[in-house]
Amino acid sequence: MRFTKMHGAGNDYVYVNCFEEKLPSDLAAIAQAVSDRHTGIGGDGLILICPSEKADARMRMFNADGSESEMCGNGVRCVAKYVYDHGIATKDELEIETGRGVLKLQMFAENGLVEQVRVNMGEPILEAALIPTTFEGTPPLNVALNVGGKNLNVTCISMGNPHCITFVDEVTDDWVHGVGPQIEVHPAFPNRINAEFIQIVSRSEMIMRVWERGSGETQACGTGACAAAVAAVLNGHTDRTVLCHLPGGDLTLEWAETGEVYMTGPAVEVFQGEWQLAVSD
Fold this sequence. Notes:
Blueprint: E1 2-8, E2 11-17, H1 27-35, E3 45-50, E4 57-63, E5 68-69, H2 73-85, E6 93-98, E7 101-110, E8 113-120, E9 143-147, E10 150-158, E11 162-167, H3 173-184, E12 194-202, E13 205-212, E14 216-218, H4 222-234, E15 241-246, E16 249-255, E17 261-266, E18 268-274
Parallel strand pairs: 2-3, 4-6, 11-12, 13-15
Antiparallel strand pairs: 1-2, 1-18, 3-4, 4-5, 6-7, 7-8, 8-17, 9-10, 10-11, 12-13, 13-14, 15-16, 16-17
């Protein structure tokens, strides 16, 4: 199986061009194997770049634990870069089919290769039942959550996948690694949830770390950053355009007055290789 390792702001995945590669049915097992950073290729998961009947390509995303997720903001930027750079569709604006629907992406290329991508991530999903969470509200805004002996105030938003945002004075390992895993599996979130911890720097700047559902802490989470930007506006912390600093790099986020969230950030191809599928695969 030929693959390409790519990352968006350090959020790294193993990408497979399914226009050319044919994979076995147990994709969860393959995702787990290739994601292992000791015995595999290493990454936050597996992303398949597939043909689509309604867009330039279709993205399927699997977390490091093998579970399939609806969307990945950093991943979809890398899919668009791959589609453009490898000649599947060389247009300044691409459409990629995802579990969230068809997204439009604007390419910023230099010397024929994409370096930055701007994504229309669509409107945030604010209804509690659709996020989903057992909390009430549209959205559940600054609601009380007791987890691990801590009383938190959280805001829940979906960008096609669910996010629980907590604003803290300082983002620390205790929050991310101590509280994050407990939020992920809290009974208030029937499909599990991504946990974002946000430190506000100014009206136009914030720091974020994330515990991702099925993958643990990652260097960045595009949908999580978008959800955090929306939550920051709704809680009165920032303006509608904000620079988000993540461990793996920066993302520029804009929650437009028309309702859509736009995300701009890097997409990087690291290397290509070949993975030897096991006989059982």
